[in-house]
Amino acid sequence: GLFVTDYFTRTPRKLSPFRSFASIELFHFHIPEDTVIAVWNLITFKEQGGTFGDQCPDRSITVYFRSGAPSVINPLHTHFPRDTAVPGSFALTLTWTLPNRTTGVFNVTSPLPGDWFLAAHLPKDEGKISVKGLYEECQYLFQPQLIVQRLVNIAVLYPGYVTEQSMAPHNRSCLYKVFVPSYTSRVLVEVLRCRGAEGCPLWLRVRAKAPPLHNSTALDCREHDPCQLALDLPFWQHWYYVLVEKHPGVPGTISFQVTVQLTDCSQPSLARPPFLPSSASMNMPHSFGSAGGMALGDSPPPTSPNGTKHPVPIASPASERCWPIRPTLRNELDTFSVHFYIFFGPNVSVPPDRPAVFVINLLPVLDSGGVLNLELRLNVSSLCGENVTVFGCLNHEVPLTSSDNTSVTCETESLAGFLLSVNATASLSRLRIPYPQTGSWYLSLRSLCATEHGFEPCTNVTAEVYLRTYLSPCINDCGIYGQCKLLRTNNYLYAACECKAGWNGWGCTDNSEAFSYGFQLLSTLLLCLSNVMFVPPVAIAVRSHYLLEAAVYIFTMFFSTFYHACDQPGIVVFCIMEYDVLQFCDFLGSLMSVWVTVIAMARLQPVVKQASVLYLLGAMLLSMALQMDRHGLWNLLGPSLFALGIMAVAWTARTIRRRHCYPPTWKRWAFYLCPGALIAAAAVLLYAFVETEENYFYIHSIWHLLIAGSVGFLLPPRAKPSRRLGPLPRRKGCGYQLCVNEQEELGLVDPAVASINSICTS
């Protein structure tokens, strides 16, 4: 056949350590029909400071693959919520082959067409809280690329028609496809009039949606005469691929005929007439591949280009009839908030002699990022005292109706489903499917009576059940210890839970590492009450007449207390304002406390008469910086260095003018400046290098204590107004008068120790 190669790529993205599904990077691809092979090229590289991160440690990268919907992953092996079905996916771990780059290749032969999703993440880290901009972090970037090779002009088999084929010696196989419409209960593929050098050395393989594989449903035509392969309960509204493969080492040309028969379950004794589909199969594609396009209702040609002849009568075994399928009404309330209403529901009557079948249609792409919820509640009063059990089978793309009325399974050799049951003792049953595959989901309800010999069909008992089906963003809205987040990757939306307070799991229901109520209360009290340490600096500032500084400290103490009361992850939370307002005021108060303290230490009042201009300028600049980036390193370091520069210039000017060090007393250095600087440095080191998510509540409380304590040591004493002597007589003529406040120049701690003198010389 003729192959066409398509190439798809995605933009590199930064990977994050896994904490919940909200921390993964999701990539969305679309594989076209008739694809015979898909190759994913997985490129990963390191970056640090805008260059290749050769010095970054090697961290394993896990990639998940799933068709139809995102993968439901659980790398931390947490517990899922009750009644949750976990669909499977394939995982791949990438290892590093070069210091800063690695490449992995993942091949899928005959992949299913449609949407494919890749999820990637780094392993869970220790949860260190790093200051943004303190050092260049190692970034791990991941970029997937997809190369697909698909066949064009695949021959199409028409139901009831015979196609002749000759396989040349250099050919090994022939590939066909046939479309299976709705209400088809059986697909029969048969090889006729096979003639070769060694009988009929052919393999017959059939697979839905994609070309067959080595493990697909197969039949050896040498051992079976006639060579017929039957598939019960095929997927509706899908292509089925038929592969006729020659045994290896068989010489010569092999000629054969292939025919396909579809059984319409609405008429179980008859095969589906060719090109006369039932009213339920009106979604058949208008294009029939290499056989030419033909709209529904057109009459078939006498002979098609690929050798198809007129239909021949083929015996069709009787099949079980299919029951009417009741549709549901879709009501969209919000993103991933969809209710499916049943006409004349929500109470459903389940007769004893036949099942009740409903269909739920999930839209492609739009509905696969949420959770499909199903709830069955039995009305016990409708059982009339009988021991009745109502079984429900939820299957994808085809309803499961078994001829054995006593069977309680929802699975076959080629079909898997979900089983629900309700009875008089357990009248409620729930099912949750996170990230469901889109398309049609069929729910079949039937009632059976329990006897000594198992389940048997009931007589004259019509059970009544309450049926509720809906689509939600997350499971139970992630509970009280989680937050349901709506995430986006390019044009694809999906939802995931982000848990807190030590709770884990897909719905934040795993409490194996959860914080107790006492622990939550203790952490909240520590973070809030540690701000009381600002009371001594406020008292010192008021006593020294630093009223503006005292007001800033009170502002910081107030908003830091209530910000941490609102910032708690558990249920011990108290918010007096919006969280964003409290966070801004807390950060602004902390930076302003540093600013006014250092400006006060510079003692600019005798030099700059309007030192309050610096206070106002600092408040405006800090507000602007916090609005730009609240977690940046330079928001704390920049104003502090600028204020320290002003203080250094002021102290240097005094030192040069006085010709000795300022402050001049060793007591000021030994008992106040050095201890205060050491305490502040210890606080900064704890904040920048020691703080993690696990020790946050007590390390950050120590940070509060140390910062407030350092302010009490560093805040300079305020000089009292000097009691000047009367003005000395001034000589006439040229001269000057110099007044020096000895107490202010000496920088004494206690003004009462020294006498207050003003020496004026002319």
Automatic annotation (TrEMBL):
Domain EGF-like per the UniProt entry, residue ranges: 497-508
Family stated for the protein in its record: Belongs to the TMEM8 family.
Full protein name: TMM8B protein
Domain of life: Eukaryota
Keywords: Cell membrane, Membrane, Transmembrane, Transmembrane helix
UniProt cross-references to Pfam families, sorted A to Z: DUF3522
Membrane topology field: Multi-pass membrane protein
Compartments it resides in: Cell membrane
GO CC terms: plasma membrane
Transmembrane segments: 514-534, 546-565, 571-595, 607-626, 632-653, 669-690, 696-715
